[in-house]
Amino acid sequence: MGQYAKKALVLGAGGFIGSHMVKRLRDDGYWVRGVDLKYPDFSQTWANEFVQGDLRDVDFVRRVLQFKGERGNFYNSVPYQYIESFDEIYQFAADMGGAVRFHWRERCRHHAQLRLYQLERS
Ligand SMILES: NC(=O)c1ccc[n+]([C@@H]2O[C@H](COP(=O)([O-])OP(=O)(O)OC[C@H]3O[C@@H](n4cnc5c(N)ncnc54)[C@H](O)[C@@H]3O)[C@@H](O)[C@H]2O)c1
Q1: Which residues contact 63 (CB under 8 A, 6 or more apart)?
Q2: How many angstroms separate the alpha carbon of residue 113 from the centre of ligand 1?
Q3: What's the total number of domains in the chain?
Q4: CATH number (domain holding residue 65)
Q5: The domain containing residue 64 runs over which residues?
Q6: Exposed, middle or buried: residue 27 (CB in 10 Å: 0-12, 13-18, 19+)?
Q7: Please, what are the averages of pLDDT over each run of 10 residues along the chain (122 residues)?
Q8: Model confidence, pTM
């Protein structure tokens, strides 16, 4: 990872908690991809790469999980052997109904190294 300690994916990075989490991770030396429907309302994003999209879309989620390099290549086509998993994933995207539980569990089954942090409404 060169200059970065780890690579993290923050879902809901345009929201209150997610945007602060991105900043915290950057301060801790992480490379961070933020994902949200929208950019943060009251500040810039500190993410190395910020991707706008809907996390209820399974195909989008599949692509979001693929780390393609420190330059932020989400939209680029990268040879399969260069695609890696994220070390950590933080889920703060709200109001997604049951979608998050369903397809995140499916996807994360294939990413043994990651730790999934999720705040859920009880
Ligand atoms: N803020 C708190 O004090 C607090 C306390 C306990 C739990 N929580 C929970 O933590 C989570 C995050 O809280 P918050 O205050 O940051 O909320 P927030 O509304 O500020 O942020 C949530 C973000 O999720 C994004 N989002 C929603 N649906 C999405 C989708 N389909 N695809 C992509 N992005 C989507 C929204 O655009 C928004 O930016 C929520 O589930 C909330 O219920 C918050």
Answers
A1: 74
A2: 25
A3: 1
A4: 3.40.50.720
A5: 7-118
A6: exposed
A7: 90 97 97 98 96 96 94 90 94 72 54 48 44
A8: 0.86
